[in-house]
Structure formats: C-alpha cells, structure tokens
C-alpha cells in the first residue's frame, strides 16, 4: 500500500512492512489497520484476521470480499500484527518521477520485533532506485545504532533517518555520517528545557495530535515557539505540520532541509 499520501512532509508513502507493537495510545496507524483488517478465509468461510504463518511474510497479496461482493487486495490482512508484504518491494521502481517517500508509515520498521532480514530487503529495494528520497521514522533509535555497527545502514544522500519523540526527555538518533531528523509529533508537553538538541540533527518536524481521542493534548503556542527560536539559533530547518497552522499564525513555517 502506498503512492500519494496525506502526510505533508512527504509526497508518497510505501509500506513493505506494516504493523507495530509499541502500543502508543494516539496511534493513527493502528486505527487504519483495524479498519481495513481481514482477508477471505479458506473455504469461503467469511473474513478472518488469523495468521496461519509462523512469521507474517506474504509473497503475494491476500484478498478480501466486502459487502459489495467485489474482491480486493487486503491491505492489512492480519490487522496491526507486524507483516512483511514482499510483493510491495518493487513499488519504488514503478514510480518514474522522483519522490520523497515515507517508508513504513504504517509500521515501525526498526522495532525490536522486526527481523534484520526484513530491514535489509527494504534497504536493498531503496538502494536499487536512487532517484527517490527515503525517509524513515522510529521510536526505537537504538536499532539504528545496532544496524550501523553491523554495517547495514545505507549512508547515501537520499537516506534520512528520523526519530519520533513526544516529550523532551526521550532519546533520539543523530550521526555525522548520515542525514538525521527529529519528529516531535504529537507534541505532548513543553520543550523549553530540551537545550539545543535540535542542532544535532538536520531537520525538525513538529505537529499536534489529530483525531478524536477523548484526552488528546492540545499544544500551547509557547511550546512551539520554544522550538522555533531554538531552530533559528542553531539554523536548523523546521517543518510545522498543518495541524499547527491555526495555532501558530504568522509563525507558521514549512522548511525542507534540501531546499534551505
């Protein structure tokens, strides 16, 4: 599943791996996966989400027949269970125009539960089509370090490695030999005590929680301004997601590091 995306800092998404075990209460991806879960059970016994495989690796898409009677590809046959959709690996090669691709927007490719082989296959698929920019995000930045130590991390100029944080005390990944960025989304508290952490990465993305979660956090303007001034001082490009446009008004900005 991929192609165009509503994610405003990328113009395509690509999900050769889907599913995640972090359990974040604000996760949009889990909601989507549950909405489109299921596939046609063998023997015409309706729709199921049971995974008959020891490891969820699919060489071809499963199908699901919805109420209209039309059979379609099942995007998330096992719901949010981590799944490797091998048949999606050639998708970047089919996109002729260069794109900025958010890789695995419906997963954490670098979660501890993801086998090294899955990650290697995704990296190899990226390296085979260098016309695109590949952008990764994880809440497990220690996996980046482990992969670097194994010599598995591509260092090309079109590879960008990001860490998602929601509070100022969380660990993040930075490295002089690769492009790194920080995604502060959703921002859940002030970052004024975070120091100059953003000067160690090449880019900062910040956004508010979206959706209708009953206890979702509405960020204060001052929280974002602290990040704005910190980025100005360190000359770090800053991208605010559309969820902050009304909150930030004249201070709203969307900068890309490859354009600044």
Characteristic key phrases:
globular; 20% strand; 19% helix; 260 residues; 6 helices
Q: Report the structural category.
A: alpha/beta
Quaternary structure type:
single chain
User: Could you list the spans in which at least 5 consecutive residues all have pLDDT below 50?
Assistant: none
Number of helices: 6
Tally of DSSP β-strands: 15
What does this protein look like?
- By secondary structure, this protein is an alpha/beta fold.
- It is built from 6 helices and 15 strands.
- The protein has helices spanning 28-35, 91-94, 116-127, 142-149, 221-234, 245-248; strands spanning 2-3, 12-14, 17-18, 39-40, 47-48, 57-58, 63-65, 71-73, 83-85, 100-103, 133-138, 159-165, 179-184, 204-206, 238-240.
- The protein has an 8-stranded mixed beta sheet with strand order 1-2-10-11-12-13-14-15, with helices on one face. A 3-stranded mixed beta sheet has the order 3-9-6, with no helix packed on it. A two-stranded antiparallel sheet has the order 4-5.
- Helix 5 links the parallel strand 14 and strand 15 (238-240).
- The longest helix has 14 residues, at 221-234.
- The radius of gyration is 19 Å and the shape is globular.
Short structural description:
This protein is α/β, with parallel strands linked by helices and 260 residues long.
Helix-strand blueprint:
Elements: E1 2-3, E2 12-14, E3 17-18, H1 28-35, E4 39-40, E5 47-48, E6 57-58, E7 63-65, E8 71-73, E9 83-85, H2 91-94, E10 100-103, H3 116-127, E11 133-138, H4 142-149, E12 159-165, E13 179-184, E14 204-206, H5 221-234, E15 238-240, H6 245-248
Parallel strand pairs: 2-10, 6-9, 10-11, 11-12, 12-13, 13-14, 14-15
Antiparallel strand pairs: 1-2, 3-9, 4-5, 7-8
